[in-house]
Amino acid sequence: MKEAFRHIHGASPDGIWAAPGRVNLIGEHTDYNDGFALPIAIPQNTLVAARRRDDGRLRLHSAQGDGPVIDLDVADLNPGAVTTWGAYPAGVVWALREAGHEVGGADLHVDSTVPTGAGLSSSAALECAVALAYNDLYGLGLDAPTLARISQRAENGFAGVPCGVMDQMASACCTAGAALHLDIRAGTHEQVPFAPELEGLRLLVVDTRVKHDLGDGAYAALRAGCEQAARLLGVAALRDVSPTDLPSTHRVLPASLVPLVQHIVTENARVAESISHLRAGRVTELGPILSAGHASLRDDFRISCAESDLVVDTALAQGALGARMTGGGFGGSVIVLVDESRAQAVGAAVTAAFRSAGYRDPHLFPVSPASGARRIE
Ligand code: ADP
Ligand code: MG
Hints:
2 domains, Ribosomal Protein S5, domain 2, four-stranded antiparallel beta sheet, globular, single chain
């Protein structure tokens, strides 16, 4: 990392910062409905080596970006000014300045083991690593949730992706051996111990390696649908609808919005249920909750796809405790909770099922809850 930085930028970095990708155990599409989520950080990280510059230049390079150094003037950073991968790190600098922090330039070199575009939040990992680097380089003293919100602002306002804050909160605030209970409206987070290996379990990630184009427009449409439903129901956000209110929503809402509300309300309940099981040490009880979450995303929210459904169905048929698509939908990754004695068989069956369906081989790897963003040198 240091050698690469010296080669690209001609000097040594002031430090190296790391921020992880994430998988969300449960609580999907609930963040922009003011609700709850339960992500973990994964062991794959994005590293940023950085050196402060006092001439206002921001010079960006990535081992995954396969292009020359992007050279910008921080005073010229405006939404739309950068349209490549550089929009994520440049967006962080823009968002810090928008928030009134007088930060200047830097040389950055990025290298990552988080697969990009696989629903594992490589974008949030990149933003959070840069935000943390800037926090130290410029002595800002901002805490992790604030850096997460700055990173989300970068993605929304500069890169033009209308995501909620769950990914950035996970990357910034997770700790090893725990899942992160997020209450988005309250702005609070709490660590919930989660160590599947200690219970003889494995959490597998299956990257389907597909990303259907539908995803980008669909996200905005789903978000608008949820907001419209909240308005029609007379609540600030769907977080305010309780499971007992569900039957009566049919009378108020157009038929197309009812299943969206159904998903958000039951999903928030699944987060609460998962947390009480984890707190009581009943990790295996998570399995059926994950599978119910998948059914809700597939049938009510309608954002799954044939590849993700095939992973879930195959894993469950092979004795997995539970499985669900994770992330925004239309491809990306699936998580599978499985007894360690069945993990190999589940992996083999999923790969075989993909081959007979004519799909590309999926990428499978086990994860355990890892550390959030931190300085490593
Ligand atoms: P996800 O966050 O699920 O991986 P996104 O589409 O939100 O998918 O973000 C992926 C994009 O983030 C990439 O196309 C690229 O622009 C940027 N990105 C992420 N990691 C890196 C990296 N290490 N180097 C350069 N760009 C990156
Ligand atoms: Mg992303």
